[in-house]
Amino acid sequence: MGNPAIGTMVVCLSCRKVVWAQDSDFGDVRGFANCAKLPCPLCGIEGNFDGWRVYPKQLENLDVPDGWAAMHKIADIWHFAWAADGESRWTI
After folding, report:
1. pLDDT tens digits for 34-47?
2. Would you say residue 91 lies in a domain?
């Protein structure tokens, strides 16, 4: 098995906000959210997500110390607002 990711995040492409993030490897959360047609917890649009998994080798390229900082930097690079907090979580 390869190196596990050190960060996973999901972005709503409709409202351009990071709606979910975790500092570990949760697999393809974006794929699940799209297949299940989950609504964005912020704007309500269904199944319009992209996602990133950050791996240790990317830290040097992004010039950051950890996965959490890498996810924030990726969000900044792509101009995504950070909204991954208790208010933006999916509830089922």
Report:
1. 999 999 988 999 99
2. no
Is residue 2 one of the residues assigned to a domain? Answer: no
DSSP line for 72-85: HHHHHHTT-EE--S
The 10s digit of each residue's pLDDT in 71-91 is 999 999 999 999 877 555 565
Please tell me the distance from the alpha carbon of residue 79 to that of residue 35, in angstroms, as a whole number.
25
Q: How many folded domains does the chain comprise?
A: 1
For residue 34, what are the domain limits?
Answer: 7-85
Residue 92 in any domain: the answer is no
Alpha-helical segments (H) within 1-92: 29-35, 58-62, 67-77
pTM, two decimals, is 0.85
Collect all residues with Cβ–Cβ distance below 8 Å to 14 and sequence separation of at least 6: 40, 43, 45, 48
